[in-house]
Amino acid sequence: xxxxxxxxxxxxxxxxxxxxxxxxxxxxxxxxxxxxxxxxxxxxxxxxxxxxxxxxxxxxxxxxxxxxxxxxxxxxxxxxxxxxxxxxxxxxxxxxxxxxxxxxxxxxxxxxxxxxxxxxxxxxxxxxxxxxxxxxxxxxxxxxxxxxxxxxxxxxxxxxxxxxxxxxxxxxxxxxxxxxxxxxxxxxxxxx
Length: 192
Hints:
- By secondary structure, the protein is an alpha+beta fold.
- The chain contains two helices and twelve strands.
- It has helices at about 10-25, 30-45, and strands spanning about 1-5, 50, 60-65, 70-75, 80-85, 95-100, 105-110, 140-145, 145-150, 155-160, 165-170, 175-185.
- Strands 3-6-7-8-9-12 form a six-stranded antiparallel β-barrel. The protein has a two-stranded antiparallel ribbon with strand order 1-2. Strands 4-5 form a two-stranded antiparallel ribbon.
- A hairpin with a 2-residue loop joins β8 (about 140-145) and β9 (about 145-150).
- α1 runs antiparallel to α2 (about 30-45).
- The longest helix is centred in the first third of the chain and has 17 residues, at about 30-45.
- The chain starts with a strand and ends in an 8-residue tail after the last strand.
């Protein structure tokens, strides 16, 4: 899992103060600085909303940042699309499966039990891979404050001009950024 950048602001500030005290050899302040760092660390550790944990076996919904009423789904002919967010059905439920490289995951749709391959800029993405060996692993890129981009050669983008199909695009575009929410948990699963 990952921490939201907004959850680390106070801890980073405390670290900067502690580093300055250490660099200036102000040993009389070491105990106070330790207490300050420990307090901020404990705040982050105890904040259930600070960490975004990707757990293999849990199902997630990916809601688009630019179109917050749309979530990544499976459309006609297994082309990935942004569809009106619904709590029903499995087409909007996705599994993240570890690739063996830290921060890179295979996406697997619960309804189709298939994976997407790689996608080129502007081209629609299909769920046409039956196994991870055929699929493409996507980097989960932290865009800050609980927003993520899934990036291969390009990012997974919800294109308004292409009937909200998921196409390849740059990760910096809002329509290429996603909120990730757990919708089903596997009690036997462990964080990747």
